[in-house]
Amino acid sequence: MTLEAIGAIITFTKNAEEFLKRKKVHRDLIFKYLANEGVVMPPNSEKNKLVKRTLELWSSGKAGVDQSLPGETDDTKQRLTSDTDIVKAEVGFDPLVLGQQFCQWFFPLLNSQNPSLGQPPQDWGPKHFWPDAKLRLLSRAGSEQMEEFLGAELVSLRLLALTRDEQLLLSPNLEPQGLRTLASPHGLVLVAVAGTIHRDGACLGLFEQMFWPHPLPRWRTTAGRSSSST
């Protein structure tokens, strides 16, 4: 499974429950996952019960931080792990460190556009994106709304509106629980990060954002999925 395919699957999945209930996420896979996490379930448990128990586990925060992506087969996991190891050994960088450094650059830059911080904004604009950058923004605040923007100018302006006009602050979780990266032998890296959304000191909800590469060696999609709730 390619990085772009994984990104597309996650982007079009509304939440964890919907993902787990997909036909391709087999009952036996969920059962095995729970067993690996030390959760004992009856061998004849129906898939719905396994899904419910998995969601309870994730909500408790007790799941291992080195867990597989939901629906990931052993073969896929082995290939992705192997690819990441190859990148570390041959290209000379750790994808997780790259993801952390990228987020430490991107989010402070975007948040600095928020006038409520009372500080001069950093230099933001379309120059930070490739000309064919694509943004897909999914928001949930009572109702669900999907927006898509194509091109560096539109992507830059829409992200700018989140912080400058809507005065939102995005606080990413750069610990292993909130940040995941996948790498290919070619050096392409997918970065997925989760965090909280704030305004005027109040936490409004949650966000999940993905940055994934174009098949060519450059960044294309600058933001894959963002969701918020109040």
TrEMBL record:
It comes from the Eukaryota. InterPro entries: UPF_C3orf38. PANTHER family: DENSE INCISORS. This is Uncharacterized protein. It comes from Dissostichus mawsoni.
